[in-house]
Design brief:
Distance between the termini: 39 Å
Bound molecules: 2-phosphoglyceric acid
Number of helices: 6
CATH architecture: 3-Layer(aba) Sandwich
Oligomer: single chain
Structural class: alpha/beta
């Protein structure tokens, strides 16, 4: 059985300011760095063999901190990036016009092929995230990878493994530096293939961040 840990990056400047990042980027806050250290402390005895991160700056930094604690290297995979939120990237959630808010809702409410102008659909996100996860199946036997990615991207992955539509990710709260785990297994009892072991665990964090919409 292959166990894959899924970690959302630490809190960033724009998460704290309620600004939309998508494939744009902002640095980790001091709290975000501390959260990454706490993930490292939690997983350092888990036998992690590979840390694989989205190539955006916030996931790179989080991954480096975790990989240091685990004593393994980091590689980057652009398929693990956050949803491309097109023209709404870098905007404050509170500053959206009614039309812009409607674009945002089009995506999160699951309109088929809905996308923010110049952005990506949830279907496209779901396909590239599943391909990024499936790449773990090609690692040498006995590997135990940890992927560092993003809120919507990881929520979409977990939702679709459960057989839910990609936009069901809005029913999951994956806070900064939460840990989820999915396993690939051939059990006769559970469904063969990917199954969800845990989602959104923050028990290792002494100062969990509120997510953007809760602030
Ligand atoms: O892009 C963003 O603004 C948020 C949305 O949830 O994602 P993340 O902070 O996880 O990259």
């Amino acid at each position: 059985m292959l166990q894959v840990y899924l970690v959302r990056h630490g809190e960033t400047q724009w998460n704290a300011e309620r600004r939309i990042q998508g494939q744009s980027d902002s640095p980790l806050t001091a709290k975000g760095e501390q959260q990454a250290v706490q993930v490292g402390e939690r997983v350092r005895t888990y036998g992690i063999t590979h840390v694989i991160a989205s190539d955006l700056g916030r996931t790179r930094r989080t991954a480096e901190i975790i990989a240091d604690a685990c004593g393994c290297g980091v590689t980057f995979d652009a398929r693990l990036r956050e949803l491309d939120m097109g023209v709404l990237e870098q905007r404050h959630l509170d500053s959206l016009s009614a039309e812009e808010e409607a674009w945002r809702r089009l995506v999160v409410n699951g309109t088929p092929d809905g996308r923010i102008p110049e952005g990506e659909s949830m279907q496209e996100l779901s396909e590239r995230m599943r391909a990024g996860l499936n790449a773990c199946l090609d690692l040498p036997a006995g590997s135990r990878p940890l992927l560092v990615s993003h809120g919507i991207a990881l929520g979409c992955l977990v939702s679709t493994i459960l057989g839910l539509p990609a936009h069901a990710e809005r029913r999951l709260r994956l806070r900064n530096c939460s840990i989820s785990r999915v396993d690939y297994q051939e059990s006769l009892w559970l469904a063969p293939g990917w199954i969800v072991e845990t989602a959104g665990d923050i028990s290792h964090l002494d100062a969990p961040a509120l997510d953007e919409l809760q602030r």
